[in-house]
Amino acid sequence: MSTPILQLQDIEFAIGTQQLFQGVNLSVLPFTRLCIVGRNGSGKSTLMKMIAGLVEQDSGDIFVQTGTNIAYMPQEPIFPKKQTAYEYVLSQENVDGYQADKALDALGISGKKDLDTLSGGEARRVSLAYAMASEPDVLMLDEPTNHLDVETIEWLEKNLVNFQGALIIISHDRTFLANVTNQTFWLDQGIVRTLNKGYGHFEEWAEHIIEEEMKTRAKMEKLIAQETQWSRGGISARRKRNQGRLKRLYDLRNKRSQQLTRLKMARLENEIGEVSSRAIIEAKDISKTYGDRCIIEKFSTQIMRGDRIGIIGPNGSGKTTLLRMLIGEERPDSGKIKIGKTLEPLYLDQNRKTLDMKKTLWETLCPQGGDHISVQGKQRHVVGYLKEFMFKPEQARSPVSTLSGGERNRLLLALSMATSSNFMILDEPTNDLDMDTLDRLQDMLSEYQGTILLVSHDRSFLDNVVTSTIVMEGGGKLQEYAGGYQDYLRQSKNKINAQQKPLKNKEKQRAKAEAARRANMPKERPKKLSFKHEFALKELPKKMAGLDVKIQKIEQALSDPDLYLRDSIKAETLAHDLESFRSEKERLENEWLEVELLREEIEGM
To answer: Which of 167, 206, 469, 566 could form a disulfide with 310 if both were Cys (CB 3.0 to 4.6 A apart)?
Structure first.
């Protein structure tokens, strides 16, 4: 059995009279992929800061194996003044110029970039480069996907899956956590629970725990049972709500798919006029160019009442520009856009609204007085409405200044959703929202009767909300696909596979260049293998043997000539898995060879 490189024993921590958590026990092995989950304020970031040595626990012990390198990326990094990205990454101990360049290049950031001029996405990339450059044994990331585009998130997923150290991650991105983690650490009302499976299994596990606790607490005072159900209903009710929500969403997607089919037929006939009188936005052959760069070229679409349109693409690809053109805030260089005259738009952007810190939550929602608020045409009592956004009744009369950052996001969401509108525009609404707030936002959007335009990098959120997805595919080309992000991937699979081949060649060329550069760099060789290298020599052969078994099984299945006739989708999936396993085996073989050569060199010294 592997030896832990990091251990927490009986950790306790309190803020004032509030016990944040107690009895925290955690063992981290070299290849642990751990996510820490829990509501805002449960202590996730505090626990991570303790491991990083930035916060001291009230009691208990933290043991770190000698020689273990721990890297930590905070949720809100503070950059030094008057430094470039390269200088910042290079400022760490045990990081040389090659490592700094490699980390920044992998994340698409110029080392000459001034830290004072970084956008939100660029700042996140620099922070990741800083954390990953030292090739740590334990990598801790607090909300790493915030402000990143889908392309970068998927790059990060791939690199974290192949990362040779241990991972500890806090994130609201459910798809990201499900793809990366193999262990889940749940902080809930001061109690700590561990699931030895990734986040993909968390909700079913948590629901079972809550149901069992509710049966026990039902024997107690009724008020206590009700309070428990309210405070943790976000998990226990989520799957039941999802069933109804997704059924309605699938019905809407089917309608949107039919609309897109009719629209394509109209284009073929060169008659993109009135496909439907329900159209609220019509764009015909719109184009937009900045300097010599074309970001949108002859794009056409019709958006009907009740549609929920997602827009995705890399940072800087023009998503917000397209959004602004479709709602009339920016003109296209060519083409035409018609916008309905009866629209009541609502722009939901967490960065564009401000709250009066001196007002109470009640006064914020009822500025004219009274105790009721109109929500999408229905009168709601302010306390009941706040409870839907996970506020306790006694918080209604508290000033906004007493709220945490996550609670303020929930209040902004409650305020926005109560505003009368029939057309909602959401530009990156999921940044900095916890999972419970995200789930409530999805519920509200499911009930919303108007039209939605959404820019987001959160794949799970897109899958749960939109009826079709407009993809910025580069070179000014835009394409609309019926359904959410996963539907887009399925529909564009052939194109993606074609695009991956030159990318692999490019990666091989880059790897060769980096290897040559490293070989020419004078670097003192270690006198003995590190723990990580010793562990790799022991574990990599086991992983390669496991891949050999999988490869052999798939090859045997694909040798059946009738498989393609019986189940072409299964055959295609198996072929894709075979290629993936072979690539992974090749990577592991190269890694093992590199460590083995290092071992031989050290023993020959």
So the answer is: 469
